[in-house]
């Protein structure tokens, strides 16, 4: 069976709905790829999300190094230029290859899911992280955006 890496955005979801979906597809490790794991949405800040995940048997890891840097986020919010954001984030990602390699090793050992805010993975940096992990793999990797 091919390995799978899931990604999910919690933008229009409740924490219980998000965790239920992860359990449904067999996720064992939640990889929070936000630079700052804080949220205005109840249950999605680091401490609360880690506790809720643990309560459902899902391991939680915050991977700050792969979060989108503040300056990029703010410029995107101001300009709406996702292409410029993507170029900037890909430059950042190249400087974080050790973190990508660590995640790649974990992804091939356990069923993992990358978490960020944006509902649509095409509008989120997690798509680039997933692609970078896939590029390092030897046995193929299917990326599934939930």
Name the strands of the widest sheet in spatial order.
3-2-4-1-5
CATH topology name, in short, is: Cobalt-precorrin-4 Transmethylase, domain 1
Named at the architecture level, the CATH assignment is: 3-Layer(aba) Sandwich
User: Which oligomeric form is depicted?
Assistant: single chain
Q: Provide a count of the helices.
A: 6
Inertia-based shape:
globular
- Order of H and E elements: EHEHEHHHEHE
Set down the secondary structure blueprint:
Layout: E1 3-9, H1 15-24, E2 29-32, H2 46-55, E3 59-62, H3 70-79, H4 82-94, H5 97-107, E4 112-116, H6 126-136, E5 141-145
Parallel strand pairs: 1-4, 1-5, 2-3, 2-4
Structural notes for this entry:
With 146 residues, the chain is α/β, with parallel strands linked by helices. Helix 2 (46-55) links the parallel strand 2 and strand 3 (59-62). The two termini are 19 Å apart. It has helices spanning 15-24, 46-55, 70-79, 82-94, 97-107, 126-136; strands at 3-9, 29-32, 59-62, 112-116, 141-145. It has one domain (3-145): Cobalt-precorrin-4 Transmethylase, domain 1 (3-Layer(aba) Sandwich), CATH 3.40.1010. Helix 3 (70-79) runs antiparallel to helix 4 (82-94) and helix 5 (97-107) packs across helix 6 (126-136). It contains six helices and five strands. Strands 3-2-4-1-5 form a five-stranded parallel β-sheet, with helices on both faces.
């Amino acid at each position: 069976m091919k390995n799978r890496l899931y990604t999910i955005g919690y933008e229009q979801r409740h924490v219980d709905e998000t965790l239920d979906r992860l359990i449904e597809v067999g996720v064992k490790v939640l990889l929070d790829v936000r630079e700052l794991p804080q949220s205005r949405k109840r249950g999605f800040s680091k401490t609360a999300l880690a506790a809720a995940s643990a309560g459902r048997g899902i391991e939680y890891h915050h991977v700050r190094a792969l979060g989108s840097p503040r300056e990029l986020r703010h410029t995107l919010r101001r300009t709406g230029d996702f292409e410029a954001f993507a170029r900037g984030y890909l430059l950042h990602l190249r400087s974080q290859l050790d973190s990508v390699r660590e995640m790649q090793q974990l992804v091939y050992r356990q069923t993992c899911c990358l978490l960020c805010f944006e509902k649509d993975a095409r509008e989120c940096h997690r798509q680039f992280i997933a692609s970078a992990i896939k590029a390092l793999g030897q046995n193929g990797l299917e990326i599934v955006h939930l």
